[in-house]
């Protein structure tokens, strides 16, 4: 077998800053010279700058443009990986829009869902076909992603035998429409837009894991969502007066990298939301 097919290939979205940058740094160290780690970003200049920064630390990430809101961009990144390596071992969907203080959430919800949820679906659709045997696919969510955070009236939108990946996205589109129509609260949707969004991300991981269980189990592939805990990044800082309990991005990245690099032969966790190396209850 050539080294092109035996060396591990990894890709992280939204990796020019925050947790994503730390994930690339940690993966570069973990995979060493035998691995290729793609630092992807929606903005080429910011992505290249981040690569240069890591190269200054003696690491060798490679840059790929990838905007999760753009089908063409996501497909081009997947095609680049396919043509260079024929497959991928580690995919971390980390990219996320921020919530801006002082702007009504009703004005942010559509872009937020398009990035964090439809973006996750775009990633899953483009990269799942490339997963090699024993691959690890991780969606960075949060502890908000447990179904118990939602009003029971909404649970059927995010679980059930008949639920599909597209069904999860429809639930989130309905949520966006309800926020815009001013009916979200009466329908039971919470005020904080990150809750339905993170529940949707975890629901998508669960649906993918369920639908592909026979094949993924046979091929040793693990798909999971991760909660990294509170991290001191530009995204979280505006919301907290005291960040002393927050992890640095490098600290928070450790447990996500553990999940993304579980050795071949590991069978659990599978289809779970994992925080600090332990599955969280869904309900
Ligand atoms: N921070 C926390 O305390 C915390 C807690 C729990 C979970 N999380 C989760 O951890 C992940 C990373 O959070 P973070 O705090 O590191 O956030 P962050 O600092 O805001 O970084 C988010 C990254 O996503 C990128 N991004 C935004 N829109 C994108 C798009 N359309 N396509 C590709 N990339 C895009 C951003 O790029 P630009 O630089 O171009 O904007 C940035 O690189 C998120 O999923 C978040 O929900 C964070």
Mean pLDDT: 96
Give the CATH H-level superfamily.
Answer: NAD(P)-binding Rossmann-like Domain
Low-confidence stretches: 1-5
Specify the CATH class. Answer: Alpha Beta
What is CATH's topology name? Rossmann fold
SSE diagram, text form:
Elements lengths: L2 H4 L2 E4 L5 H14 L4 E6 L2 H12 L6 E4 L5 H15 L2 E6 L11 H23 L3 E10 L24 H17 L12 H18 L1 H7 L2 E6 L21 H12 L12 E3 L2 E2 L4
Parallel strand pairs: 1-2, 1-4, 2-3, 4-5, 5-6, 6-7
Antiparallel strand pairs: 7-8
Helix pairs in contact: 2-9, 4-5, 5-6, 5-7, 6-7
The protein binds NADP nicotinamide-adenine-dinucleotide phosphate.
Description:
The chain is 43% helix and 14% strand. By secondary structure, the protein is α/β, with parallel strands linked by helices. It has a single domain (3-279), classed as Rossmann fold (3-Layer(aba) Sandwich). The protein binds NADP nicotinamide-adenine-dinucleotide phosphate. NADP nicotinamide-adenine-dinucleotide phosphate (NAP) binds at residues 13-14, 16-20, 41-43, 46, 66-69, 94-98, 115, 119, 140, 142, 228, 230-231, 233-236.
Summarize the structure.
By secondary structure, the chain is α/β, with parallel strands linked by helices. It has helices at 3-6, 18-31, 44-55, 71-85, 105-127, 165-181, 194-211, 213-219, 249-260, and strands at residues 9-12, 36-41, 62-65, 88-93, 131-140, 222-227, 273-275, 278-279.
Salient structural properties:
alpha/beta; single chain; eight-stranded mixed β-sheet; 283 residues; 9 helices
């Amino acid at each position: 077998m050539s080294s092109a097919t035996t060396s591990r290939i990894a890709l992280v979205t939204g990796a020019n800053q925050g947790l994503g940058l730390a994930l690339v740094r940690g993966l570069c160290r973990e995979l060493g010279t035998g691995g290729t780690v793609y630092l992807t970003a929606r903005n080429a200049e910011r992505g290249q700058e981040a690569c240069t920064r890591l190269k200054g630390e003696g690491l060798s990430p490679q840059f790929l443009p990838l905007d999760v809101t753009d089908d063409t961009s996501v497909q081009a990144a997947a095609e680049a990986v396919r043509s260079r390596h024929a497959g991928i071992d580690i995919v971390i969907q980390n990219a996320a829009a921020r919530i801006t203080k002082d702007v009504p959430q009703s004005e942010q919800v559509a872009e937020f869902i398009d990035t964090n949820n439809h973006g996750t679906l775009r990633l899953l659709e483009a990269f799942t076909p490339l997963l090699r045997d024993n691959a690890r696919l991780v969606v960075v969510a949060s502890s908000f992603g447990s179904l118990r955070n939602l009003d029971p009236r909404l649970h059927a939108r995010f679980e059930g035998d008949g639920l599909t990946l597209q069904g999860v996205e429809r639930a989130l589109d309905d949520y966006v429409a309800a926020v815009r129509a001013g009916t979200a609260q009466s329908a039971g949707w919470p005020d904080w837009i990150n809750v339905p969004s993170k529940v949707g991300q975890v629901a998508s991981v669960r649906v993918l894991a369920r639908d592909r269980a026979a094949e993924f189990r046979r091929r040793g592939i693990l798909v999971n969502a991760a909660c990294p805990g509170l991290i001191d990044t530009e995204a979280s800082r505006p919301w907290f007066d005291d960040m002393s309990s927050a992890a640095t991005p490098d600290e928070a990245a450790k447990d996500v990298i553990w999940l993304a690099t579980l050795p071949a032969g590991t069978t659990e966790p599978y289809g779970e939301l994992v925080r600090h190396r332990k599955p969280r209850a869904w309900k």
